[in-house]
Amino acid sequence: MHLRIRLSTLAAGVVACCATATAVLPAQAFAAPPAVTAGPAPTATTPAANTPATTPAATTPAAIAAAAARPAGLSTAGATTGSENLAAPAAPLSPALLSQTLMGEPAATPSAPVQPKSPAARAQSGAAAEAAAQTCTPADFAGRTGADLVAFLRSSTTDCVSALFTNGGTDPTIFKQSRMLTVAAAFKDLAAAYTGDNSTGILQLVLYLRVGYYIQSYYPDAAGPYTGELTAAVKGGLDAFFAGARWHDVSESNGGVLLEVLTLTDSANIQADYLGVYKRVLDDYNNSYNAIPKMVSAVNSVLRFPLWRGNANPNFVNAVGADPSLVTSLANFAINHKDLLSGPNAVLDTNAGNDLGRMAGSSPTVEAVAKPLVKQVLNAAPLLTADASLYVHTAFQATVYDNNQCSYYDICNLPAKLTSVVLPNQLVCDNRTIQAQALSAAELAAVCTSLRNEDAFFHNVVKDNGPIPNQYNKTVTLGIFANKTDYTTYSWAIFGNSTDNGGQTVMDPTDPNNRAANVMYQKAWNNSDTARVWNLNHEYTHYLDGIYDMKGNFTTQTSVPDIWWVEGLAEYVSYSYRATTDTDAMAQAALHTYKLSTVFQNTYGNSDTTRVYPWGYLAVRYMLEKHPADVQKMLGRFRTGDYTGGYAVYNSLGTSYDADFDAWLTACAAGACYAAGPTALFDTSVNGATVSVSERSVQTGPGQITSWRWTFGDGTSSDERNPSHTYAAAGTYTVALTTTDSTGRTATTPASVTVTAAPVALPNCTEQRTDAMGRNCSRTGRAATAGNTDYLYVYLPAGTTTLKVTTSGGTGTAHLYYNPGTWASPSAFTASSTGTGTTQSVTITNPTAGYRYLSLYAVTDFSGVTVSTQF
């Protein structure tokens, strides 16, 4: 159902108190982070016959239209993947908002359906040129009715019809019921003989019907009423479609059509009539679908629309109560397909958990059936395991929609429970509470020291006169996760942040009951931030800026174009405080892409990440160095809440500083803005699965660079100055260089590389012994149980310049070790690859002749692994 929905707003947060002692204490000694207070399960109201049921949603009309128009991936709180870019500071998301935004699409979904044209369209002269020239506006449909409308739709592209989701509101009359009835009748005719693809143009008809329901929900007066006559007509087409056999086809051509037809059952608000269809979709799914993106999306359309939104429709709820087998299928799907949680289609499984947790609270009758199944799913997906995302999604929806059973589920105060398990290492650092997943006591203390010292640095930069009156949030929690995966899995349910980012600050300084939070995670390669906490000082600067510089909440603070200051200050303080060169900013300075007057107009809407972050840093640094009086004048306005006046300070400068800024950029890029000590710089080139690096680091001030340490993002590393590395699998990896100078100072710079081809499969090794490797060959079927080691060896002839050892395939986690002198093991090796899974790689340059030793150590049981040696 795609309609305008009023957001429910539920209160979140508890009054936080200040701890002044600094000590490492057990987790239970601390108050829980802000609790997400869930209200009673939403009450479904009976919709009018022509109006889809309403549910809490986190979408604007444009966002709903975009989701409706195409099976595109969403940036959601529960997404399994996400950007490394930072997110704008924001207030915590409410439970109602989080609840809806959890529902997402698989990452493998194509951006839009592309289907064959109808026979009539193919018969037309110049059909391809006509399709390319289609304007896809309501005017193209306005004069068409009856058979003419149907023929035009069937000859249109799916993109053309989908465009009406966003522009159809300019003339809602093209979706009056009389037109919808004509299209519904044509849909029924084609559905009766559905051939498993879109060769007849049936998809365009379905899309038109879906757009009609969407537009009519926004513009009911202009589009006119939809009555039971239309519902019956659409149901007739759906019944004819599902009565056939070809909708079961597991194919890309069927998947694109099936996706939209299944969603139409929800758009028409007749979910109660298709429980058997939904159940079959869930029961039939198997992993063979994963190679067919549109079939995956078709399955997900059931999870994302009717099984989610139908819970607000009494007819659907009553039907499920009368036949709860659908609830059982949903729980079985969640449990039986947990293997999806580690892949690109993880949202299929977490969406099943979302639906089950929500369905449990739809009525007492359904709750009685769903309760033990929710518990079963929770027990099957323990925290701190690869299955934990299923637990968190299921539990969160149960707290929102079935909170009266939280004791039975053992999820009362879910944020506190997750914190105690996932963030057990805690430290009170003055007004800061650091809650960490993997920081040691020493690392917690180091983070505390870093933040304490940053306070003084920040105040010296902005020259404030103390906290802004009536800005609350005088305490702050820092949630620090061990890695990106765990950040994505847990943080949103604890702190109410979005996770499609590299960290976020959530706070509302105007709310006395809100406690600010900086949420972030560690990166293994990151030697530039204290305790490898990515963006530690950047996010903490946002907190300080919101207390000392920017009066009001974030909406008020960004009511004018001031993102150059908000994000630029966070970048400037982070890099300057850590005495680290902002290499991205230096690269941008050399390009002279933007004028200062342009950067002053930055908003999150008109700027990409390059313009927001590196150019924000450059603008702030320039203004602080060259025009500090202007900065103070601006901040004087911001601190009183006069954002219009603060904006006028720099907007009135016009282009007067542009020429000086441009000259300053030249000097900056030439070295004037480099931090003292080493700056790690390098270029990369990719050839198939191999990346080569070219180091060009610079030293500023006394000393010289003495060592280079590379990590390649797959568990391997090198101390060579300019190594090359071959990956065992195609993908995107982070290459990071850490340089160290003669005074002990270090600098780390990362770069992302994408390798597009994995190594060519090698023939089987022919040596008689099964533990003997050879030149350019492989051994398959390697296996060991957890804690044991699979030993191998290889003889290298004189003149060998490079030995590459790779492992791939199979299941489990096996670490690869190499030793030139004795049997390799986790305690005896000179090179290793210790990433998660079975894809590992080590490269040895200039080895001497003789026997060399390899091993696969079973971190968990592994089997079916292939080991290859190349030299």
The tally of structural domains comes to 4
Output the structural class: alpha+beta
Largest sheet: 6 strands, mixed
What topology, given as strand order, has the largest sheet? Answer: 1-2-3-4-6-5
Helix content: 40-55%
Oligomer: single chain
Compute the gyration radius: what is it? Answer: 30 Å
Explain the overall architecture:
The structure is a single chain. The protein has 871 residues and is α+β, with helices and mostly antiparallel strands. The protein folds into four domains: 131-419, Leucine-rich Repeat Variant, CATH 1.25.10; 428-672, 3-Layer(aba) Sandwich (Glutaredoxin), CATH 3.40.30; 677-755, Immunoglobulin-like, CATH 2.60.40.10; 777-870, Jelly Rolls. Helices cover 41% and strands 15% of the residues. The chain is built from 35 helices and 23 strands. β8 and β9 (690-695) form a beta hairpin. α18 (325-336) runs antiparallel to α19 (346-359), α19 runs parallel beside α21 and α32 (614-626) packs across α33 (628-638). Mean pLDDT is 86; it is low at 1-82 and 108-133.
Secondary-structure map with pairings?
Blueprint: E1 23-25, H1 61-69, H2 95-101, H3 119-123, H4 127-133, H5 139-142, H6 146-155, H7 158-162, H8 164-167, H9 177-191, H10 202-218, H11 220-223, H12 228-243, H13 252-267, H14 275-284, H15 293-304, H16 306-309, H17 314-322, H18 325-336, H19 346-359, H20 364-380, H21 388-401, H22 406-409, H23 414-422, E2 425-429, E3 432-436, H24 441-462, E4 476-481, H25 484-495, E5 504-506, E6 516-521, H26 536-548, H27 554-557, H28 563-577, H29 583-591, H30 596-599, H31 609-612, H32 614-626, H33 628-638, H34 643-651, H35 658-672, E7 677-679, E8 682-687, E9 690-695, E10 698-700, E11 705-711, E12 717-718, E13 724-726, E14 731-741, E15 746-755, E16 777-784, E17 789-796, E18 802-808, E19 814-819, E20 831-833, E21 840-845, E22 850-858, E23 862-870
Parallel strand pairs: 3-4, 4-6
Antiparallel strand pairs: 1-2, 2-3, 5-6, 7-10, 8-9, 9-13, 11-12, 11-14, 14-15, 16-23, 17-22, 18-21, 18-23, 19-20, 19-22
Helix pairs in contact: 1-10, 6-9, 6-10, 9-10, 9-12, 10-13, 13-15, 14-18, 15-19, 18-19, 18-20, 19-20, 19-21, 20-21, 23-25, 24-26, 26-28, 28-32, 29-32, 29-35, 32-33, 33-34
